[in-house]
Write a structure and sequence with these properties.
The structure is a single chain. Helices cover 29% and strands 23% of the residues. The chain is of the alpha/beta class. It folds into 2 domains: 91 residues, Transcription Regulator spoIIAA (2-Layer Sandwich); 201 residues, 2-enoyl-CoA Hydratase, Chain A, domain 1 (Alpha-Beta Complex), CATH 3.90.226.10. The strands form 2 sheets. Strands 1, 2, 3, 4, 9, 10, 13 and 14 form an 8-stranded mixed β-sheet that branches. A 7-stranded mixed β-sheet has the order 5-6-7-8-11-12-15, sandwiched between helices.
């Protein structure tokens, strides 16, 4: 029987990186630190198998570079290249003089991701009674042929949608027939905030995914999966409102997880582009020289035990063309309005 991971523990883990490795004596030897870093990733990184990374080959190719490194700056650059191989926005190398994080804002073929978002100014041209709260939540009404829909822009999960913002936004929700929840360009943040918001769209306790931790030398050695479940919210229940969730490839981490969860709600439809990804929970390891190495060892799955690392496919795929962008036409938002008008 699969264990149930408590919501509290799960969201606390999502909210911060755990430090799991320290050394009592400093060792600045480049080869020693490279070997430790390579082994840590080999044993604990949760996506080596999923991403088909030949980590043994990486060691063979990188070890000569490490042996020939002239100073700690060159060694840091080598370690940065090592981190980049993971293609994981939750990975980084942090020294006392620099920090380098892997960039996964590109497609697997190396092409840049489509923007699918013009600007907040363009979005606001669609709104009446537009408001911006002190915590930077943008909300207002979209009025079309006598019908009203509430628009909510949630662009950063480091900030919680809570009172008084929630109270004011809820008044607009009560007035509207449906909801447009825009999380495009949301880079993530605290998992507990995403889970909290997701609960407002469910009518009952719901299984929304699984989590497992890498626990062996083999690429596929993981703990037994834990169930992830969402509890409905008794206050400000929005589960009866038809909702359009707007996404693009710059929806990462907690926002990506939120997407995979909330689109399971009965009345939620994901519209736009595929979300950006980020399906692991990062942990921080320390090398013998004191540098921090960050990467995920816990993997997140959807309800079908499929990875969410590379993003979530929308229910209705829409993109903003160059022509639409030039004409300040938010095609994704317009599609969401069209779909709500059909409800």
């Amino acid at each position: 029987m699969k264990k149930i991971l408590s919501l509290l523990v799960f969201t606390l883990v999502l909210g911060a990186c755990e430090e799991v490795e320290t050394y009592s004596e400093i060792d600045n030897g480049f080869e020693r630190n490279f070997d430790v870093a390579w082994n840590l990733i080999n044993e604990n990184y949760c996506f080596l198998g999923y991403k088909n990374i030949d980590w043994d080959k990486v060691y063979t190719e990188y070890k000569p570079r490490v042996e020939n490194a002239k100073d700690e700056y060159e060694f840091f650059d080598i370690m940065s290249d090592l981190v980049d191989i993971l293609r994981d926005g939750h990975s980084a190398i942090i020294s006392n003089f620099d920090k380098h994080g892997s960039d996964y804002a590109v497609e697997p073929n190396g092409e840049p991701s489509p923007d699918d978002y013009i600007s907040g100014d363009v979005v606001e041209t669609y709104l009446t009674k537009k408001r911006v709260s002190k915590n930077k939540f943008v909300y207002g009404l979209v009025e079309c042929d006598g019908r009203k829909f509430v628009y909510i822009g949630y662009f950063d999960f480091t900030v919680k949608l809570d009172n008084p913002d929630l109270e004011y936004i809820a008044k607009y929700v009560d007035e509207a027939e449906g909801i447009i929840l825009d999380i495009r360009n949301n880079p993530g943040g605290a998992g507990i905030y995403g889970i909290d918001l997701a609960g407002r769209f469910f009518q009952e306790k719901t299984l929304v995914g699984y989590s497992a931790k890498k626990n062996g030398h083999g690429y596929d050695d993981f703990t037994e999966p834990y169930k992830i479940e969402v509890e409905p919210k008794s206050d400000y229940d929005w589960s009866q409102k038809p909702t359009m969730l707007l996404t693009n490839r710059k929806v990462y981490s907690t926002a990506n997880l939120f997407t995979s969860i909330v689109k399971l709600a009965p009345n939620v439809t994901q519209v736009g582009g595929r979300s950006g990804g980020g399906g692991g929970l990062p942990e921080t390891y320390y090398l013998p020289n004191g540098w921090a190495l960050v990467f995920p060892s816990n993997v997140l799955f959807d309800i079908n035990m499929q990875h969410i690392e590379n993003g979530i496919e929308p229910d209705v795929e829409v993109h903003i063309s160059r022509e639409d962008e030039y004409n300040d036409k938010d095609t994704i938002l317009e599609k969401a309005i069209e779909l709500l008008m059909q409800k």
